[in-house]
């Protein structure tokens, strides 16, 4: 037991001998929750996750003896928790529309009973190790929750309960380790959020994460187990990209961490996801989703924790052998929370007020992404995607530039594109993916052997068009040759017919890999056909007048994922039109002679 | 402790009063300071240690004579008394009457800092508000419970626009209007009077609560003013079930006051000297807008934010844009051409538009028309830029059409009278008049069905338009 010495915003100094850095504490009469982040002689510096108004020097402080840890077990899915994993629906019941302080609420519900079935072949006498599957709980009709022996625990199984309904606090098994110590295992375990959960070894990521967004999947792919970032100024579409990924990506579990952003954006998910169906399981999308929310008006300090709470839960599902995607909106707010605390601690700022350890913290966070062989010998992955909100849209600022150094996929959003309502506003010049080569293997085997070549050709066309556009802006379009004008049109088809994709269009919001490829091939085909006609003397004006150019741009919304045959049929018509033109012109050329 | 007065100030500087040897003062509590002339000032504890207490004095610490300064700790946070009597009244930033009428007496009062709304308690805002202004209704629709700021510059008609919104805003099928909370921070006397007269002449004054801190009033009071105002807005909304429109002007003055205090405290500056917590601080204010499940009222917020040197990347508009649900941006260029309201379309945005418009709310084609206008105008601006290089005569036939479109768009769609209250259907019909200047095949954001129904010319008739078509670099060039 100790006492408060000073309150300075979220930073509280306490006299609490023996408390360790990282330990959880409760301070004041309201028992606000916080974490020790440093020591100053006999005193401990505590960052408090709740507003510190009306705390007084002299009030008591109490160490809890453990670091900030996540509760991991059945009941996580479909919920929304705050930055320190307190369920917001329970808080709502306890304290009404506004979040009260000092609440004591467990992360997992203690009352729900879950149907637990011991894993096959798990029998007393057998030796179990950390990470082994003890049994399963069918948490939703489509999701099997695997109850794991906590990492670090191993020994001989003394007993295990029979299949039945149990609450998370029930002891379902007991193990005796080599020293004779008996461990009681429950349906849930705790894990300190700042420590990555262990795995057997890291594997190379090999399959792309399919998000259904063409510019992401086809042009700047991300892999399951990869790390990606979405930087962009306000209004460019970062949140929308992340929500689209949360909606449509082919992951088993999606964690959406709203870190210092708008409350309404989480409500949007809470209200819309239960109505949407997961395209892969046919179940409600909410069943595979979990929200961690520390909105911009909630206390800053818990913002820093929210990212770690999120990634720890992600790792827990990975350890069960699942592919997990975590999107964090926005990592800049997390970095600002670091900065805020560093400032109050009087630590030396290095760039724009950020402490020197910003880069290493960012790198360490993204390092928790990966595809791994789990302790149980299965395969699971955590894909991390962080939004970055650069002040003034300036990508050279510290958070963006350090993030750029550690991620493999970088979806740079452009204000110019967003201003023209070209969404997703992913800039094809500034974005990159280090995974295109690996993704190509999957695409070429599963979808179309021409994927890599088509992608490269489209990117080259865009680059070429960019250069031509510069010339036009200097001297006008007259300076361009017919071939060059046709390049501009080809790039236009790629941009409007493939890259641009409205999240709000019910037909086009999600594009299967097959549709992505079909559209890309169609636009390239039109470009090729036209280029050939130009060579045989057809004037470019004649081509530019073709109504099919407008219709091609609309194909993405005119043909759904299930209408690819119709789309192909239209492609035949296009070919016929070009054939017809070729015929006319060769006749005319013949007649002219 | 509440009864006691202390005279333990050791330093006073930049609005901060440092006191020593007063143990056990609660962080955030309200303080009353009696200066050597007997004048009362108000303050708040912003740091409390056994050895040192730091008090922020709203009226400033100028000319405090420490030997004769007495401080009383009131043992409670800043609170605002609440009652239906608030409507029609005028207050200072800390809730003292400014209209020569008696203070509000009520058994109900609330901490002005409020507490964070539980995201799980919120309801998503989706009810379309018709403001009668085409650039807002057509392209950046406002919905009930949204926070949509006006980004502006000195000398631009943001006050007229805000007043027009207040006058005209209504729901399509409801008659009851909005109650208004007007919060002015550091504005000129003339501006404050302009609003007052406006409220008066449109007959809403009895439904308005005003909080006024003028340019020559103490700046630190601006830090508490929006919080007091929003506490009242929340009361009107959630206790009295009213729909409330909050106008905050000018948030830039607020942020400057915050910087002043942060500098005096020695907080680590981030960009342009503003403290790193400016984002969170602004969010505490802006996020108080919204709707709550199972509650009738709503808080719709229209903050006015001046962009210093017209720079939208300046930290104040920038951080605001990161928090609010879009922004209406005013442009000096349009204003100089006599266009009112001078809303520049490309950087303007309403993030909550998507669920408030369309078939059941406004009209089925609305979302696509908005997207098409944005795209076509972006392209038209490029053409205009090209014309300035090569001359308008050199443009292709299609480009000339785009040029005409841009003209018409600014003069007919953007431009409207200060008293002109256009219905959303009128707005959409002007939009189609303009889109009809362009041929079918460049209008790929709208559907074929939209074209058939609303475009003024039929497909066959337009085909020849493309005879002189030229491709132009896509809407956005990457220079
Ligand atoms: N893929 C998209 N399709 C349609 N509209 C989009 C898309 N991405 C962004 N938008 C529009 O842009 C607005 C801002 O996007 P948002 O993701 O909230 O931006 P940010 O998070 O970068 O500030 C959205 O409200 C929406 O209107
Ligand atoms: Mg966002």
Q: What fold name stands as the CATH topology of the largest domain in chain B?
A: Rossmann fold
User: What is the CATH C-level name of the largest domain in chain B?
Assistant: Alpha Beta
Overall geometry of chain B: elongated
Q: Average pLDDT value of chain B?
A: 91
State the assembly state of the protein chains: heterodimer
Low-pLDDT segments, ≥5 res of chain A:
none
Mean pLDDT of chain A: 94
Shape verdict of chain A = globular
CATH class label of the largest domain in chain A: Alpha Beta
The counted number of beta strands of chain A is: 28
Please identify, by name, the CATH architecture of the largest domain in chain B: 3-Layer(aba) Sandwich
Unique bound compounds = adenosine-5'-diphosphate, magnesium ion
Could you list the spans of chain B in which at least 5 consecutive residues all have pLDDT below 50? Answer: 461-479
Kindly give the count of domains of chain A: 4
Strand order of the largest sheet of chain B: 9-17-16-18-20-14-21-22
Euclidean distance between termini CA atoms of chain B: 67 Å
End-to-end Cα distance of chain A:
104 Å
What is the element layout, followed by pairings?
The complex is a heterodimer of chains A (593) and B (479).
Chain A: E1 2-8, E2 11-15, E3 23-27, E4 32-40, E5 43-48, E6 60-67, E7 69-72, E8 80-82, H1 88-95, E9 114-118, E10 127-128, E11 133-140, E12 143-148, E13 155-160, E14 164-166, E15 171-176, E16 182-186, E17 189-192, E18 201-203, H2 214-219, E19 227-231, H3 238-248, E20 253-259, H4 263-272, E21 289-294, H5 300-319, E22 323-329, H6 331-344, E23 349-351, E24 354-355, H7 358-366, E25 370-373, E26 379-388, H8 398-406, E27 409-410, H9 415-419, E28 432-433, H10 436-446, H11 451-475, H12 482-499, H13 513-535, H14 540-544, H15 548-558, H16 564-592
Parallel strand pairs in A: 8-21, 19-26, 19-27, 20-21, 20-22, 22-26
Antiparallel strand pairs in A: 1-2, 1-6, 2-5, 3-4, 3-6, 4-5, 7-17, 9-11, 9-14, 10-13, 11-12, 13-15, 15-16, 18-25, 23-24, 25-26, 27-28
Chain B: E1 5-6, E2 9-13, E3 16-20, E4 30-34, E5 40-49, E6 52-57, E7 70-73, E8 79-81, E9 90-91, E10 109-111, E11 122-123, E12 128-130, H1 134-137, E13 142-143, E14 150-152, H2 158-168, E15 170-171, E16 179-187, H3 189-201, E17 208-214, H4 225-239, E18 243-249, H5 251-265, H6 278-286, E19 291-292, E20 298-306, H7 315-323, E21 326-329, H8 332-336, E22 349-350, H9 366-390, H10 397-414, H11 424-435, H12 448-454, H13 459-463
Parallel strand pairs in B: 9-17, 14-20, 14-21, 16-17, 16-18, 18-20
Antiparallel strand pairs in B: 1-7, 2-3, 3-6, 4-5, 4-7, 5-6, 8-10, 11-19, 12-13, 12-15, 21-22
Helix pairs in contact in B: 2-3, 6-7, 9-10, 9-11, 10-11
Magnesium ion binds next to helix 3 of chain A.
């Amino acid at each position: 037991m100790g006492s408060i010495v000073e309150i300075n915003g979220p930073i509280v100094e306490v006299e609490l001998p023996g408390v360790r850095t990282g330990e959880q504490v409760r301070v004041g009469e309201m028992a606000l929750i916080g974490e020790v982040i440093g020591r100053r002689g006999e005193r401990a510096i505590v960052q408090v996750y709740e507003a510190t108004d009306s705390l007084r020097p002299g009030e008591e402080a109490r160490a809890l003896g453990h670091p900030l840890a996540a509760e991991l077990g059945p009941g996580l899915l479909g919920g929304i928790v705050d930055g320190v994993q307190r369920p917001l629906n329970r808080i709502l019941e306890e304290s009404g529309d506004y979040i009260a302080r000092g609440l004591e609420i467990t992360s997992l519900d203690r009352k729900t009973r879950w149907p637990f079935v011991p894993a096959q072949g798990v029998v007393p006498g057998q030796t179990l190790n950390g990470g082994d599957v003890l049994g399963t709980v069918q948490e939703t009709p489509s999701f099997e929750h695997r109850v794991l022996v906590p990492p670090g625990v191993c020994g001989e199984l003394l007993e295990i309960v029979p299949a039945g309904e149990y609450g998370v606090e029930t002891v379902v098994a007991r193990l005796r380790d080599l020293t004779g110590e008996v461990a009681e295992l429950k349906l849930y375990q705790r894990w300190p959020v700042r420590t990555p959960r262990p795995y057997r070894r890291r594997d190379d990521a090999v399959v792309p994460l399919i998000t259904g967004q063409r510019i992401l999947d086809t042009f700047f792919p991300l892999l399951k187990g990869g790390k990606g970032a979405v930087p962009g100024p306000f209004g460019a579409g970062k949140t929308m990209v992340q929500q689209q990924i949360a909606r449509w990506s082919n992951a088993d579990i999606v964690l959406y961490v709203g870190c210092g952003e708008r409350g309404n954006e989480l409500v949007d998910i809470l209200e819309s996801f239960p109505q949407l169906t997961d395209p892969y399981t046919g179940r409600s999308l909410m069943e595979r989703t979990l929200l961690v929310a520390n909105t911009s008006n909630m206390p800053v300090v818990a913002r820093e924790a929210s990212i770690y709470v999120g990634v720890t839960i992600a790792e827990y599902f990975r350890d069960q052998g699942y592919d997990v995607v975590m999107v964090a909106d926005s990592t800049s707010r997390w970095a600002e929370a670091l900065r805020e605390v560093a400032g109050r601690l009087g630590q030396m700022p290095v760039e724009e007020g950020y402490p020197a350890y910003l880069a290493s913290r960012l790198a360490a966070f993204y390092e928790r992404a990966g595809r791994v062989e789990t302790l149980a010998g299965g395969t699971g992955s955590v894909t991390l995607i962080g939004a970055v909100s650069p002040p003034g849209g300036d990508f050279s600022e510290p958070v963006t530039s350090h993030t750029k150094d550690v991620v493999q996929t970088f979806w740079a959003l452009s204000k110019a594109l967003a201003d023209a309502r070209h969404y997703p506003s992913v800039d094809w010049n500034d974005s990159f993916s280090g995974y295109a080569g690996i993704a190509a293997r999957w695409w070429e085997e599963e979808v179309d052997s021409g994927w890599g070549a088509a992608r490269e050709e489209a990117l080259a066309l865009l680059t070429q068009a960019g250069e031509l556009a510069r010339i036009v802006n200097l001297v006008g379009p007259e300076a361009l040759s017919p071939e060059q004008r046709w390049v501009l049109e080809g790039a236009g088809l790629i941009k409007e017919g493939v890259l641009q994709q409205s999240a709000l269009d019910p037909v086009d919001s999600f594009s299967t890999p097959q549709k992505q490829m079909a559209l890309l091939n169609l636009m390239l085909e039109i470009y090729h056909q036209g280029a050939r006609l130009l060579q045989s003397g057809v004037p470019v004006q004649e081509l530019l007048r073709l109504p099919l150019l407008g219709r091609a741009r609309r194909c993405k919304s005119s043909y759904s994922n299930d209408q690819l045959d119709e789309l192909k049929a239209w492609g035949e018509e296009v070919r016929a039109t070009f054939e017809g033109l070729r015929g006319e012109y060769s006749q005319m050329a013949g007649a002219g002679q | 402790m509440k009864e006691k007065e202390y005279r333990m100030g050791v330093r006073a500087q930049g609005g901060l009063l440092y006191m020593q040897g007063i143990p056990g003062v609660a962080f955030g509590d309200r303080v009353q300071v009696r200066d050597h002339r007997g004048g009362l000032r108000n303050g708040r504890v912003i740091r409390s240690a056994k050895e040192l207490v730091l008090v922020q004095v709203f009226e400033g610490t100028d000319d405090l004579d420490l030997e004769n300064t007495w401080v009383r700790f009131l043992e409670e946070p800043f609170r605002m008394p609440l009652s239906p009597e608030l409507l029609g009244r005028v207050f200072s930033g800390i809730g003292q009457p400014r209209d020569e009428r008696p203070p509000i007496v009520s058994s109900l009062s609330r901490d002005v800092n409020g507490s964070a709304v539980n995201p799980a308690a919120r309801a998503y805002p989706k009810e379309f508000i018709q403001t009668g202004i085409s650039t807002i209704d057509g392209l950046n629709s406002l919905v009930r419970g949204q926070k949509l700021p006006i980004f502006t510059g000195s000398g631009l008609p943001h006050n007229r626009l805000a007043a027009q919104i207040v006058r005209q805003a209504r729901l399509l099928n409801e008659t009851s209007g909005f109650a208004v909370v007007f919060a002015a921070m550091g504005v000129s006397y003339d501006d404050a009077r302009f609003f007052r007269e406006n409220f008066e002449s449109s007959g809403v004054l009895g439904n308005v609560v005003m909080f006024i801190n003028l340019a020559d009033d103490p700046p630190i009071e601006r830090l508490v003013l929006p919080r007091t105002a929003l506490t009242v807005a929340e009361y009107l909304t959630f206790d009295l079930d009213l729909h409330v429109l909050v106008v905050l002007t000018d948030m830039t003055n607020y942020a400057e006051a915050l910087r002043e205090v942060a500098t005096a405290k020695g907080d680590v500056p981030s960009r342009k000297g503003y403290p790193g917590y400016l984002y969170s601080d602004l969010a505490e204010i802006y996020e108080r807008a919204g709707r709550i499940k199972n509650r009738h009222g709503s808080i719709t917020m229209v903050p006015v934010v001046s962009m210093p040197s017209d720079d939208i990347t300046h930290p104040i508009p920038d951080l605001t844009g990161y928090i609010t649900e879009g922004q209406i941006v005013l442009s000096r260029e349009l204003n100089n051409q006599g266009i009112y309201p001078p809303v520049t379309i490309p950087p303007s945005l309403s993030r909550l538009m998507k669920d408030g418009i369309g078939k059941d709310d406004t009209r089925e084609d609305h979302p696509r028309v908005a997207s098409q206008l944005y795209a076509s105008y972006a392209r038209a601006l490029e053409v205009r830029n090209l014309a300035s290089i090569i001359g308008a005569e050199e443009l292709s036939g299609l480009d000339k059409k785009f040029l005409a479109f841009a003209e018409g768009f600014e003069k007919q769609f953007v431009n409207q009278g200060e008293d002109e209250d256009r219905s959303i259907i009128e707005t959409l019909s002007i939009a189609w008049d303009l889109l009809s200047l362009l041929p079918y095949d460049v209008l790929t954001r709208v559907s074929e069905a939209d074209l058939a129904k609303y475009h003024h010319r039929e497909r066959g008739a337009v085909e020849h338009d493309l005879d002189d078509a030229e491709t132009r670099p896509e809407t956005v060039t990457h220079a």
